[in-house]
Design goal:
Shape: elongated
Strand content: 15-25%
Mean pLDDT: 79
Strand order of the largest sheet: 2-1-5-4-3
Radius of gyration: 28 Å
Number of helices: 10
Structural class: alpha+beta
Low-confidence stretches: none
Oligomer: single chain
Distance between the termini: 42 Å
């Protein structure tokens, strides 16, 4: 009989370890919540599991569930409000274990498309005495409903889930502060670089204006110089703006961010730009940034220099490496020629090496160009 409690203890430790590992992989709060819910559902052998983090407006800032398909979620409708049993768990701060939630006086209602819940167990997630969320499960697969042992396991798991959730929030806060600090630094650099460019541009334009009658040829030369300087200032602004956009990765993930970026370029450019790919595995945050930046630079080069009719972007994980390839059918060039150093390719190679990856470029005059990035996961 001693083997069964030991096996259960090992299962709890494994489930808790999954949540802690989710934090050490620098996942978002929502991803940590999903790991917690998935682990609890497996641990207690439940059909449905959910976790809600309340907001200050009577609803939930985060709400994740397991056992409900995307189509069912769409049919169910908006996020639940803090009413019925959910409100009771948030208010009382004590666990609830019921043979049939529908027979409890605290039960309110659920939408028509909501799955039918019967046996139920819910536990508050606490940070000290403050309830920071609730985790609940329903419809135990094995007969007999949830037991006292199930409740004890879920209470233990909820305590560790609170630590995982708090750590994830702290990590996201640190990341936000880092982004703010980086943007402040970049704003200073932008101010210094572009201010100098615009000041020089103004002087050049004034010189051209004064030479229009006295020396038209020199005036034209000064105007050409002013045009080049304006282009350089615009390029610097564009580069800084691109650097300020990694927040999209947090909202959409790498594959979807690339898909949206490519779709935008396809609409704005006469060149046909297409994207294919998905990420079946978790990708570290720094790798996502590297891949996004290399893709943006390669796309910019192809659109600006290649004379291409079509550009294809492919993202995949064929093995232990994440692979990005940006291929065009443009003019191509000699890779060893001096122009190679002027297309931002050295910058892309530096980014690849910083992520312990590699960048290869295949190109020949008249045969297009393929930029391939490989980063180990």
């Amino acid at each position: 009989m001693a083997a069964e409690p030991e096996a259960e203890r090992d299962a709890v430790l494994h489930a808790v370890s999954s949540a802690v590992l989710a934090v050490t992989r620098h996942l978002s709060v929502r991803e940590v919540l999903q790991v917690i819910v998935r682990s609890a559902r497996t641990l207690l052998d439940a059909r449905y599991a959910a976790l809600g983090v309340p907001d200050d407006d009577g609803s939930f800032a985060e709400f994740v569930a397991e056992g409900v398909s995307d189509r069912q979620w769409e049919a169910i409708g908006p996020l639940p409000r803090q009413h019925g049993m959910l409100a009771a768990l948030l208010g009382d701060g004590t666990p609830a274990r019921l043979p049939d939630i529908r027979e409890d006086p605290r039960f309110g209602w659920w939408p028509a498309a909501h799955p039918v819940l019967k046996d139920f167990i819910g536990v508050p997630i606490k940070d000290a005495e403050r309830v920071v969320g609730i985790i609940f499960l329903s419809n135990k697969r094995s007969p007999g409903g949830f037991t006292e042992r199930d409740e004890a396991l879920l209470v233990l798991f909820a305590a560790h889930a609170a630590i995982a959730l708090t750590n994830a929030r702290l990590y996201e806060r640190v990341r936000e502060l880092t982004v703010v600090e980086e943007r402040t630094r970049m704003a200073r650099e932008l101010h210094d670089a572009v201010t100098q460019k615009l000041f020089s541009l103004r002087l050049t334009a004034q010189a051209a204006a004064s030479l229009v009658r006295a020396d038209p040829e020199r005036a034209v030369a000064e105007l050409d110089r002013a045009q080049r300087m304006a282009g350089e200032a615009l390029a610097e602004l564009r580069d800084v703006i691109v650097e300020l956009r990694p927040a999209e990765l947090d909202r959409h993930g790498l594959a979807e961010t690339l898909r949206k970026h490519v779709a935008l370029l396809d609409r704005l450019s006469p060149v046909a730009v297409s994207f294919e790919g998905a990420l079946p595995v978790d990708v570290p945050a720094h790798v996502q940034v590297t891949v996004l930046r290399v893709a943006q630079e390669a796309l910019h080069n192809a659109l600006r220099h290649a004379g291409a009719g079509a550009i294809e972007v492919r993202l995949e994980v064929p093995g232990p490496c994440l692979t990005l390839e940006v291929r065009d059918d443009g003019d191509g060039f000699e890779v060893d020629a001096p122009v190679f150093r002027g297309l931002g390719l050295l910058s892309m190679r530096d980014r690849a090496e910083a992520a312990d990856g590699s960048l290869t470029v295949r190109s020949k005059p008249g045969a297009g160009t393929a930029v391939r990035l490989e980063v180990p996961l």
